[in-house]
């Protein structure tokens, strides 16, 4: 029987610079709270994941702690800890439901410019190169903070923009069932308008990731300069990353 995990997928297999992304090393998804034994065994034994990176806030982690297992390293990296306003948590989606598109565009800009995002993604990318091993990274829904992390990995590896956006937009199909459950659970607490707005907030939009890359170009000129000046990665980082993750 297949094991189901919300918005879970591998980055392995994408065509990259002079090859493709290695299989068995990079996995993305939504939060892994309240996993059953089969799900844990799938991550632990079948996929041999030994590192979990959690991009959620302290409040999110406290409310829905990850199900972790013996032998796994757990790294909490709150990339939006200093964000002024964000729509990446359920509370943020509801509170900003009236103008969620504008809030999300601002959030994706902050994922480029905020000190916590720069520090957090530096820590994440550096760890991948310094200690390459099966890694699962996630946030609440696995769509925004995680979507940006996946885009960083794919772009650094030399994956095409078409494939980067294709991977990003897979979230909308992958989260369809989970999003319907969230709306159903909150139905008696929300107006019809709020439910409609929350439904919109729970999906990704191509414009959001486009705005992330536009902000990079506006602030740093090009992606490679952002890796160096924005994330503080060393000059030889890209070839070393590709050496570790492209085959």
TrEMBL record:
Pfam families in UniProt: Y_phosphatase3 (PF13350)
PROSITE patterns, per the entry: TYR_PHOSPHATASE_1 (PS00383)
GO function terms (MF aspect): phosphoprotein phosphatase activity
InterPro entries: Prot-tyrosine_phosphatase-like (IPR029021), Tyr/Ser_Pase_IphP-type (IPR026893), Tyr_Pase_AS (IPR016130)
Signal peptide positions (record): none
Family to which this protein belongs: Belongs to the protein-tyrosine phosphatase family.
PANTHER family hit by this protein: TYROSINE SPECIFIC PROTEIN PHOSPHATASES DOMAIN-CONTAINING PROTEIN (PTHR31126:SF1), TYROSINE-PROTEIN PHOSPHATASE (PTHR31126)
Protein name listed in UniProt: Aldo/keto reductase family protein
Organism field: Lentilactobacillus hilgardii (strain ATCC 8290 / DSM 20176 / CCUG 30140 / JCM 1155 / KCTC 3500 / NBRC 15886 / NCIMB 8040 / NRRL B-1843 / 9)
Lineage: Bacteria, Bacillati, Bacillota, Bacilli, Lactobacillales
């Amino acid at each position: 029987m297949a094991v189901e995990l919300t918005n879970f997928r591998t980055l392995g297999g994408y065509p990259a610079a002079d090859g493709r992304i290695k299989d068995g090393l990079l996995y993305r998804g939504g939060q892994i709270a309240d996993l059953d034994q089969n799900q844990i065994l799938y991550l632990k034994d079948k996929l041999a994941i030994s590192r979990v990176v959690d991009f959620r806030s302290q409040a999110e982690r406290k409310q829905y702690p990850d199900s972790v297992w013996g032998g796994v390293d757990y790294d909490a990296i709150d990339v939006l800890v200093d964000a002024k306003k964000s729509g990446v948590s359920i509370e943020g989606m509801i509170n900003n439901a009236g103008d969620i598109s504008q809030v999300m565009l601002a959030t994706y800009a902050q994922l480029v410019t905020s000190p916590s995002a720069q520090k957090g993604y530096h820590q994440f990318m550096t760890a991948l190169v310094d200690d390459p091993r099966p890694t699962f990274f996630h946030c609440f829904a696995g769509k925004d903070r995680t979507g940006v992390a996946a885009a960083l990995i794919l772009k650094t590896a030399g994956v095409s923009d078409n494939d980067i956006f294709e991977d990003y937009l897979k979230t909308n199909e992958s989260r369809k069932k989970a999003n319907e459950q969230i709306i159903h659970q909150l139905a008696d607490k929300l107006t019809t308008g709020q439910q409609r707005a929350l439904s919109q907030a729970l999906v990704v939009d191509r414009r959001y990731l486009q705005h992330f890359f536009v902000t990079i170009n506006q602030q740093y000129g090009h992606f490679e300069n952002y890796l160096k000046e924005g994330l503080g990665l060393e000059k030889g980082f890209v070839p070393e990353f590709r050496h570790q993750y492209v085959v």
